[in-house]
Amino acid sequence: MSQPIVAARDLRKEYRMGDTVVAALDGVSLEIARGEMVAIMGPSGSGKSTLMNLIGALDVPTSGSIVIDGVALETADSAALADLRSRAIGFVFQQFQLLARLPALDNVAMPLLYARSFTGDAKAIARDRLSRVGLAERSHHLPTELSGGQQQRVAIARALVNDPAILLADEPTGALDSRTGRSIIRLFQDLNAAGQTVVMVTHDEGVARACNRIVRFRDGRIVEDAKNADVWRPEIEEAA
Amino acid sequence: MRVDAAARLALGSLRAHKLRSILTMLGVIIGVLSVVTMVSIGEGAKRQIDDQVRALGSNIMILSTGFGRGPVRQQGSGTPLTDRDARAIASQVSGVRVAVPVRQGGTQAVADGVNWSTQLFGTTNDIIIARDWSLASGRMFTTSEERGGGKVAVVGQTVVKELFGGQDPIGRTFRANRIPLTVIGVLTPKGQNMLGQDQDDIIVVPLKTAQSRLLGGGNRAPGEINQIIIKAENDRVMDAVQRDTDALMRERQRIGPDEPASYNLRNLSEMMQLQTATTNVMTALLSAIASVALVVGGIGIMNIMLVSVTERTREIGLRMAVGARPADVLLQFLTEAAMLSLLGGLIGIALAVPLCFAIASFAGWTVAIPPTMIAVSVLFSAGIGLVFGFYPARRASRLNPIEALRYD
Fold first, then answer.
1. Residue B294: pLDDT above 90?
2. How much is the pLDDT for A90?
3. How many CB pairs under 8 A join A and B?
């Protein structure tokens, strides 16, 4: 746990909106260690999504430095960023973002298409990840044939397919009913218990309490960064 | 991403929109179909001319009686040619392989009550060399037959069919202009010439037989012939032979170098080349028009690919988020465009082949599909996809993944 997996120092990210320059991030320093489960909280416009885009290597900072799994984003070009995402990041989106015409298994295997060093059996790995999220027997279903919770599980399986250093989730329960949401939270907790670093962006207080560290944002700055001593472990009634 | 993976992706997304893919391909299909058909028709015409050149014999020049200088400028009214002119050309012009005198005319042939109107050629054995003819059976004339005007004939296949009912005519006798002739040889079939004349509808007799017995009469000069067929040794000496023959004939007929000649000296290969060149220009013109359809097809592909990129913005964003480089996205869309047009090209060729055969059988034209043409059009149609697919693909590869993921 010596090397932090995310090391950000004095991050600034500015957007031009017409004539004015808006600072979405205004001097943010943050470290995330391997094995943590971090919630990034804040109202919309607080800069949490911008930070998530930086942690996910989708964007580069205007100034400051951020190192993700050993790669400094501020000096990387778009191909290097893509390689970093391919190697170290697993994305889970609020709207699942599954490809409608592909069955679950192919959706899960898709990122390996772009993994340059990968030479193994993509389908076998995809099957393994699907069984880890409890959907082994649904691998040939199309997304439209799956419930919302199942679709999000497929998306999580896809995010895990490259053994990412960081599992990055953006409002992963935002499109789900609360019961299904709880089962998804438990899935993230189980993955974290197995050693997976998880970063969740959310404005749901309940989701945040399920994490062991909560970072709160307001107006582009961190206003609170604290360990969560009282981790909420949601009850699981029935499988989603 | 490897190219085979890109090809699988492309095939998948083309299959997902079957109707759209086929409609998009239609432009390329029609383009390739018309280009291949046009070129095949042009190539067929060229081959037909080629065959005719070969049928006439190669490196051939024809010296014939031209316009006279009298008040009535009529073909054949010039100074008559004689077989002495032919001998002079053969012996005095270097590079001449043979110079064959021909006395030509129509004749009515009769055998066992069957009438057949045909062409009679009085000539020498060298005609075989000059016209690249060959004998299917029998023999040509003996020296005594040539000198003595023997009543013998070599006939073409059409004459065999019409006059002898297709049976072996060797040794049989028929009458031509009331003179009995014995068949001693049969020519191999040659087919039609450029003007649609049947080259097998012919009776060949010794020159003297034609002059004195069959086509004589009137106020003809002794030894008069209609034309001399000159065959040069090879195509490199053709120009020299033509020049020297002209000089020799001017000398023999006492025509000054600047006066108009009273004879025609035509280089057949040149005429053929001219005709081939005309056909080439026509083919090129038609293909150029046809390739406009290809370009329109390419624009159709570009249009649909742009729509597709816009429609799949989120997919592109997702693929980028999970590690696709801009180059991977470029490759994916470029492959898709190339595959669209390549498939269109293949379908176009598959349709062009039966169309060419249909044209050949209905219009009666010679149609030849050159194999290189097929290879070229396959490559060209794939190239169309690459050229017109590049802009949409580059647009896809330059999307910002964050904005693309939010797009709806």
1. no
2. 95
3. 61
Residue A164 has pLDDT above 90, yes or no: yes
The one-letter code for the residue type at B190 is K
Does the beta carbon of B327 lie under 8 angstroms from any beta carbon of chain A? yes
Helices (H) and strands (E) in chain B, counts: 13, 12
- Whether A129 and chain B come into contact, CB under 8 Å, resolves to no
Q: Are residues B176 and B48 part of one domain?
A: no
B138 lies in some domain: yes
Asked whether the ipTM of the predicted complex exceeds the cut of 0.90, the reply is yes
Neighbours of B132 (CB within 10 A): 15
Q: Look up residue A116 and give its two tokens.
A: 């340059």
Are B296 and B347 in the same domain?
yes
B68 falls within a domain: no
Q: B138 is written with which tokens?
A: 């029998």
* Over residues A24-46, mean pLDDT: 93
Q: Is the pLDDT of residue A206 over 50?
A: yes
Of A78, A101, A114, the CB nearest to B322: A114
Domain encompassing residue B113:
79-261
Residue A190's pLDDT is 94
Question: Does the residue B268 lie in any domain?
Answer: no
Residues A172-197: tens digit of each pLDDT? 998 899 889 999 999 999 999 999 99
Judged by a CB distance cut-off of 8 A, whether residue B127 touches chain A is no
What are the structural domain ranges in chain A? 35-63+71-227
Residue B115 sits in the same domain as residue B211: yes
Residue A236 CB-half CA count within 13 A: 10
Assess whether B104 and B246 both reside in one domain: yes
**Above pLDDT 90, what percent of chain B?**
35
CATH hierarchy code of domain A35-63+71-227: 3.40.50.300
Nearest CA in chain B to A164: B322
Smallest CA–CA distance, residue B26 to chain A, in Å, is: 25
DSSP strand pairing (A197-202 vs A37-41): parallel
DSSP classification of residue A3: S
B192 and B322 within one domain? no
* pLDDT at residue number B189: 86
